[in-house]
Design goal:
The structure is a homodimer. Chain A is of the alpha+beta class. Chain A has 2 domains: 6-40, no CATH class; 44-177, Nucleoside Triphosphate Pyrophosphohydrolase. Helices cover 19% and strands 43% of the residues of chain A. In chain A, the strands form 3 sheets. Chain A has a 4-stranded mixed sheet, with helices on one face. In chain A, helix 2 runs antiparallel to helix 3. Chains A and B meet through strand 2, strand 3, strand 5, strand 6 and strand 8 of A and strand 2, strand 3, strand 5, strand 6 and strand 8 of B. Chains A, B: Keywords: Hydrolase, Magnesium, Metal-binding. Chains A, B: Mg(2+) binds at residues 75, 91, 95, 141. Chains A, B: A motif (Nudix box) lies at residues 76-98. Chains A, B: Its cofactor is Mg(2+).
Chain lengths: 182, 182
């Protein structure tokens, strides 16, 4: 079955610092019409970083949409035209103070394809080293740096301190990479 | 470090059929102010469903925010006040025609904690059986039903037909459950 939805018209609702919002009127595959509420986002990167001691590097951060702190892998939004790999190295350095010898893309996925176009690119950083002159955080960013074992990270998932898609993906990725099954 | 951001004021931007959007002015941990753009979403469920023949049940769907079709595990939005487990069974039936003997929560996570409060509850359905009188799709929903092996699903991830967080989580979950590591 052809599933495509054709755009009849687009109504711009909001143009913010980070997201924009529009409502599209669409023609459905059966010829009827409906509306789709769409959030446009610049995209993001996140970094799976494990220290020489085998600890996973995480950051605790207050997330206003949730009105609470959660613990995540280091991540950040892409700046306009920015190369995702450059962005990944930058976010790792700014949020954790770590540099790395190499960084490799392991997956990219849409976070909420029903209403948003946000895509997140997940990297693995190798050869972590603390930088003495690391770049700092953005002026509206505040994080607590944490380094935990895989077992501690699994405990964080259980008690909902780790509670977001990219970080749960990252922990499963490490379980699979280490050959530790359920 | 205390990371909390206090709400100074809230400006409602949009109140749609599915999402609403607001901009909060916040007081940061250092006493300065900033703004946060927030999308409110009713939450969603998704279902990992494997047939007696070991095939994973998937649906192909046009996603307007991405302007393309992707292949996902069956999923849907929570209706107001709806129990997530009831919703999971309903969405499985509507999108795939399958009923199940039992359904169990395996994880819940926020999809985009930086700008949205959407949470998705992931269930595993056991004892699938085709229903003769299955409930149908919503009038603006069109999907192609697919049943694939784990190997085919991994191939779909590689060629970006599977491209969203919850479905990639589900495939990792099945790899771990089956003890198949990288």
């Amino acid at each position: 079955m052809n599933l495509q939805e054709k755009t009849i018209s687009t109504k711009k609702i909001f143009d913010g610092r980070i997201i924009s919002v529009q409502v599209d009127e669409v023609e459905l595959p059966n010829g009827k019409t409906s509306t789709r509420e769409l959030v446009k986002h610049p995209g993001a990167v996140a970094v799976i970083a494990v220290t020489d001691e085998g600890k996973i590097v995480l950051v605790e951060q207050y997330r206003k949409p949730l009105e609470k702190e959660i613990v995540e892998i280091p991540a950040g939004k892409l700046e306009k035209g920015e190369n995702p790999e450059v962005c990944a190295k930058r976010e790792l350095e700014e949020e954790t103070g770590y540099g790395c010898d190499s960084i490799e893309l392991v997956s990219s996925f849409y976070t909420s394809p029903g209403f948003a176009d946000e895509i997140i690119h997940i990297y693995v950083a190798k050869g972590l080293k603390k930088l003495e002159d690391a770049a700092g955080l953005d002026e509206d960013e505040f994080v607590n740096l944490m380094e935990v074992t895989l077992e501690e990270a699994l405990e964080f998932i259980k008690n909902q301190r780790i509670y977001d898609a990219k970080t749960i993906y990252a922990i499963q990725y490490l379980q699979l990479a280490l050959g530790r099954t359920k």
